[in-house]
Amino acid sequence: METPGGLKSAREMGLIGCTRCGRVWPDGTPRCGRCGHKLRSRDPKSIQKVWAWWLVGLICYVPANVYPMLQTRTLVFTQENTIVGGAVELANHGSYAIALVILVASVLIPVSKFGVVALLALSVRHRARLSARRRLQLYELVEYIGRWSMIDVFVVAILSSLVQLGSIVSVKPGPAALYFALSVIFTMLSAQAFDSRLIWDREAKNGASPAP
Amino acid sequence: MSQPLPASDRPAPSLDALIACPRCDAVYHVGTAPGINQRATCTRCHHVLIAPRQSAGKRIIAVALSVLFLVVAATITPFLAISTNGLSNRSSILDAALAFNSSGALLLLLSFALAALIVFIPALRAILVIYVLIPLVRNRTPWPGASRAFRLAEHLRPWSMAEVFAVGCAVALIKISALAQVDLGPAFWLFSILVVLVVVQDTLMCRYTVWKRLEG
Ligand SMILES: [Zn+2]
Ligand SMILES: [Zn+2]
């Protein structure tokens, strides 16, 4: 594809692009006339918001792993399982695939999400080793997989509504379910607060004239 | 042509004919818009900018109507039943969502949030999309508030978690099967279809085309 004159960002052209519908407006327009979305050339508080949600999400993730997720009561015993404890027990019973799903959704995805969002937020201010496109791919991945962490919360919900067989066996949700759900919601908000256009500004600064 | 040209070299183009990549802010001149089943992608970040599809409007409406029907059906009919030693219990999707309601105010809040993620938000998005698209596919002027409705539908997209819930069901089933006999109700199968439809609904939609049409 031909690129005569090279690509320019809306900001470099003294314009604002709407992130919801793509319409371009003169600098200073407060709201998009096509879709009504609030226009900002760049959100100056974007990174602050990212870190704020990120921190709250991380704080909630601690009790989510410490407290029990599930309380199982049977005739002979009462058992409380944390997220990791539940997965280990599943593996002990031979359900390796399910244990793996739980570990990926509840540990691997959230932990790597904290890491990636922090890396993206830092790379806006500091020099990054990864190329801009690679970082955007990471961002899109995080945006896509973040919601899948909710699996374990849904599992707890299904189990506690279904497994109610009087004195034989009954399942109750533990406090970790709440913290875990909150942690997922906060990290989703953190990723959404990130203005991905910031990734490209640093690169543009090296060549083109500075933005107004 | 399938790729929009970079707009930087053009003398004062009409802003209406430009499109800014929502991911990286690169500006393109739309020029001749891509034809049916062609895609215009951002050359810098590879984000898909424009991707119109053959009679997408009608197909999306059909899918959204089935989503709506399935959500209602799957919500009120029991979707799982278990039994062991003569005792049994059955549960609907709404029961599952509201499972936390017995354990305090905060968990009650979580219950409502879960019900929203699984049932209400997918249903609301379907209604909003139908409302926006019906006048468009009939080539009429959009109904009042259509752009606000579409904006809300887009805003809710990441919070619609029907398909995540479906995977949760599968995991829960295998966990329970060790404890008791599990029976799958019709709602379970309805919900499985629903998940496929929700994904289809999102891949068919060309947001640029819809916004352009809503602008008039
Ligand atoms: Zn807009
Ligand atoms: Zn782009």
UniProtKB/TrEMBL annotation, chain B:
Pfam families for this protein: PqiA (PF04403)
Cleaved signal peptide residues: none
Keyword set, alphabetical order: Membrane, Transmembrane, Transmembrane helix
Membrane keyword on record: yes
Residues that span the membrane, as ranges: 60-84, 104-137, 158-182, 188-210
Name of protein: Paraquat-inducible protein A
Species of origin: Pseudooceanicola albus
